[in-house]
Amino acid sequence: MNQAKSHFRRELAIIPAIATVIAVLAFALVQICLLVLLPHYERDIPPMPFLVLISICGGIVLAIIILMIGYVNADSRRRGMNSLLWTLLVILVPKALGFIAYFLLRKPLLIPCPSCGTEVGSDFRYCPKCGHALTPSCRHCGRSISSEYVCCPYCGKPVGGTAT
What we know:
The protein is mostly helical and 164 residues long. Helix content is 52%, strand content 4%.
């Protein structure tokens, strides 16, 4: 439970500060529009307790949408995807379909190569920049194997000398 909470906090930490500021300003703007300006210009409004509830819920929904747009922008950038394209997609595609498409189609996180530090895909076997083997492989058949294996599950030969 505690590790899941810290992972969630790490994910929230990638939201840019500008998105947080815009979300707070949008929440305040909704409050001003519905609680100050609307009663001043409109005579046929719901009772004040309902108007307060509507303004708070509307402000929270708008702030969450803005924070999610900021998250998609930062997350797509750290995954090596086109952040401008995905940000525009989640803004312009209606009914949250852009968000759903992003979360279904996003690439896995990039990891640094232990040898040269270049960001590589988590499914890469070798670093494209320096050629370092990211996963151990059998020296006989060349397939990826776990470092704990005694013999290769594909060719059956001992893996005492793996190409790492």
